[in-house]
Specification:
The chain has 310 residues and is an alpha/beta fold. It has 2 domains: 202 residues, Alpha-Beta Complex (DHBP synthase), CATH 3.90.870; 79 residues, Rossmann fold (3-Layer(aba) Sandwich), CATH 3.40.50. The protein contains 10 helices and 14 strands. A hairpin with a 6-residue loop joins strand 1 and strand 2. Helix 1 packs across helix 6 and helix 9 runs parallel beside helix 10. It is globular, with a radius of gyration of 19 Å. It binds threonylcarbamoyladenylate and magnesium ion. The site of magnesium ion has 3 residues, from loops.
Length: 310
C-alpha cells in the first residue's frame, strides 16, 4: 500500500486538536483519538455510543513508546518479538504515573494495548507524540468496519477525517490476551491461539464464553447485523439470506458466499462486509451454514454466535 503523506498530515492535524480520526488497521478500522487527552477520549465514547464502563484499547508504534505507560515482562517481550506489529492485544498493568486518560480506562489500573501492522497507521503512529485510543470504528454493539465506506455508513459526517487504507487484510478483531497474572485469552481473534501457546510454551486458558461476561466490556450483544441470525443451518428458506462458507454451483439469489474455495482466511476477510451487505438487502433474517471450527474459523464462529444473540 502506498503511503500518502498529505493524508497522514491531515490526520495529525485533527488528532493534535483532540478530534477523532478513523484509521485503517489490518484487523478492522479504528476510531482514534489522543489517548492522553480526556477530551478526545470523551469524543470517542460519544461517537460510538459506547457504554462508559467499556474501556478503550490503545495503539502504540513500538514497545519503547509503551514503556512510558505500562509495565511488561518477558512473556510480553517474547510475544511482542514474534507477533508485533500484528493482530494481538495485551492487557497490562498501567504505571502509576502513566498519562493515559482516566476516561479511556474508566479509572482501571490495567490497559489494553496493541501495535497495528497496517503501514498507513504505522506511519501515523510514528509521527505522533501520543498513542492512539482506538476501539473498532463502528456503532457500539454493531458489526465492525473493514473499509472506509463502512465507517462512513455508521458515522456520516460526524467524524472529522477517515484515513484511507483499503480493505482490512484480516477482517476480524485482534486476539486479546491478559498478561497480568497467568496468561488468559479474553477474546479469540485474528491470531490463532495455538501460535501464542507455542511461544509461551504452555496451554493458555480461554475466558471467552460469548454468552457470559467474564471481562469488562465482554457484552453479550455484539457484532450485531441488526436482524435475527441463526447458525449451523443446513437448508434455508428463499426469503432468508443464506451465508455459506464455500461457493457452490447451484446458487440461489439469497446465497452469500464467504470464500471461493473454502479458505478460512478469505472467509474472515469477507464476514463483516457480507453482514453489512445483507443488512442493506431486502432480507429480514440471516441463516448461516456450518463453518469449520478450527483456526480462524473459531473466531468467525465466535462472532456469529455473538451476532445471533440479537
Ligand atoms: O483489532 C482490534 O482489536 C481493533 C482494532 C481497531 O485495533 N479494536 C477493537 O477494539 O476491536 P474494541 O474496543 O472494539 O475491542 C476491544 C476490547 C473491548 O471488548 C474492551 O472491553 C476490551 O478490549 N478491553 C479494553 N480495555 C480492557 C481492559 N483494561 N481489560 C480487559 N478488557 C479490556
Ligand atoms: Mg468492537
Amino acid at each position: 500500500m502506498k503511503i500518502n503523506l498529505a493524508n497522514i498530515k491531515k490526520a495529525i492535524k485533527h488528532l493534535n486538536k483532540n478530534e477523532c480520526v478513523a484509521i485503517p488497521t489490518e484487523t478492522v478500522y479504528g476510531l482514534s483519538g489522543n489517548a492522553y487527552s480526556n477530551k478526545a477520549c470523551e469524543k470517542i465514547f460519544r461517537l460510538k455510543k459506547r457504554p462508559r464502563d467499556n474501556p478503550l484499547i490503545v495503539h502504540y508504534y513500538n514497545n519503547i513508546q509503551l514503556r512510558k505507560d505500562c509495565n511488561f515482562d518477558n512473556r510480553f517481550l517474547d510475544l511482542y518479538k514474534k507477533f508485533c506489529p500484528g493482530p494481538i492485544t495485551f492487557i497490562l498493568n498501567l504505571h502509576k504515573n502513566s498519562k493515559i486518560s482516566k476516561i479511556a480506562t474508566n479509572k482501571r489500573n490495567s490497559l489494553a494495548i496493541r501495535f497495528p501492522k497496517h503501514p498507513v497507521t504505522r506511519a501515523l503512529l510514528k509521527k505522533l507524540k501520543f498513542p492512539l485510543a482506538a476501539p473498532s470504528a463502528n456503532l457500539s454493539s454493531k458489526v465492525s468496519a473493514v473499509r472506509s465506506i463502512d465507517v462512513k455508513e455508521d458515522f456520516g459526517n460526524k467524524i472529522k477525517y477517515i484515513l484511507e487504507g483499503g480493505k482490512s487484510k484480516i477482517g476480524l478483531e485482534s486476539t486479546i490476551i491478559d498478561l497480568r497474572k497467568e496468561p488468559k485469552i479474553l477474546r479469540v481473534g485474528g491470531l490463532e491461539i495455538s501460535n501464542i501457546e507455542k511461544v509461551l510454551n504452555q496451554k493458555v486458558k480461554i475466558k471467552n464464553n460469548p454468552l457470559k461476561i467474564t471481562a469488562p466490556g465482554q457484552y453479550k450483544l455484539h457484532y450485531s447485523p441488526g436482524i435475527p441470525l441463526k447458525m449451523n443451518v443446513k437448508k434455508a428458506k428463499d426469503n432468508e439470506a443464506y451465508i455459506l462458507f464455500k461457493r457452490i454451483k447451484k446458487a440461489k439469489p439469497n446465497y452469500y458466499f464467504l470464500s471461493k474455495k473454502g479458505s478460512l482466511k478469505e472467509a474472515a476477510k469477507n464476514l463483516y462486509t457480507t453482514l453489512r451487505k445483507i443488512k442493506k438487502s431486502k432480507f429480514k433474517s440471516i441463516v448461516v451454514g456450518k463453518i469449520p471450527n478450527k483456526g480462524l474459523g473459531i473466531t468467525i464462529n465466535d462472532r456469529l454466535l455473538r451476532a445471533s444473540k440479537f
